[in-house]
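Course exercise 7: structure representation. Students receive a sequence record and must write out the corresponding structure in token form. The form below is the worked example handed out in class, using Beta-xylosidase (442 residues). Read each field label carefully; the graders check that inputs and outputs are placed in the correct fields and that the protein name is recorded exactly as given.

STUDENT ID: A-19
EXERCISE PROTEIN: Beta-xylosidase
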Amino acid sequence: MGSTPRRSRRRRWASLLGATALAVTAGGALAVPAGAASVNVDFPTHCVPPPIAGIPPIDGTTTAKITVDNAGPKVGDTVTVTYTVVAPAASNPTDLALPADIMTPTGKVTLGGAQTGSVTVAGPKKNDPVPGKGVFPSFSMTGTFTVTTPGAITLSPGDYNIHTSYILELDTPCTVTNPPAPVSETVTAADNPPANTRAISLGSASGSPGASVTVTGTGFTPGATVTLAGRSGTTQTADTATVTANAQGAVSGSLVVNDLTTTGVVAYEGGAWSSDLGAGPVAYIVLDDQPVPEGSQKLTATVKAGTLSMSQAGDAVQLSAVDFGQGGAATGDLRTVTVKDFRGGPAGWSLTGKVTDFSGPGAKIDGGKLSWTPQCSTKAGSPSTCQAGSAGTVGSAGATLASTPDGTLTGGEFTTDARLSLDVPAFTPPGTYSGVLTLTLT
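STUDENT ANSWER:
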């Protein structure tokens, strides 16, 4: 009589461990054409549960997807890879519920095409509870690889393993039956040319019309013909000269500057200016110090430099409501921000934002759950062009809403806004939650 309950407990324990192992097994076979990018793929999988579970190997279908943070990298860039097992084939075969946060996945992503090898990926110890007879949850693993070769690089799901921490520490390895699995994502890597190290300096920052300015430079291609030229804003003037780079890539020459609108001097290889093969502009001003002819009057007007400023169309945004128990995206639009850059110098600007946590009735929503999709427009006639920041998380670390680059002459008027989305957890207590988004213009 006394031994029967122990056997029963052992059978129940083994059944429970077996159910845990099944939570991470899958297999089967459906083909997807190679080369498909960012798609779910099905592939046959052979999984071996822990021996203590008393369950034979399982062959079935795994549905998975590979995504990357950058589908167009350059050689030398680091790409973050996410391997998601979307739909394991198995369901919980028992009536016993499995607790949350017992599964820690690891795996491999197979590289092919222009670059071969594998990427090690790992996921957090996190899963939703699985009810008896319930469907097993999906899980994701991430890792990185460095691009070493230009061209199309394919990514396919590889073998994975689930470590479970429930009663015992156990592993369930799952292998691709017919490797490689179908291609789920493709990145196209561009060659990364050497950094442009060309640089120039001037013997003086100003001079009279017709004065000669000494230009010296380094980092040019040895033996290359280098053009020295004046610039008026972003436009090249008629003042040019040519020099030849020596065996060390250094240049030295003189440029006669006549154009009164000159704002800088550049030097470049090739038939026209290129940021890849050029240096500068370095600031240079032509001083209009010529004497006034007899019987004439010299008229002078001054343009005063202004300031960099911003204004907002309002200081409050009401996001849409979400339902308790469902949660989801609370959305809205950032109040339009107008930036006026009337400084008239070479510096661009950057408008960034960061947000606090959202406080509510006895609870809070992490500020990291706020994301935005920025937009920016430039008023006609502005010297600079506004660039919207990348879509993504704002959070306490902050993100860029909009910016303009440095240039020979910058400035203008710009308007920027963003679509906002707060990811509200499903069972956040009912009530109003408020956070503060701070914008900083530099």
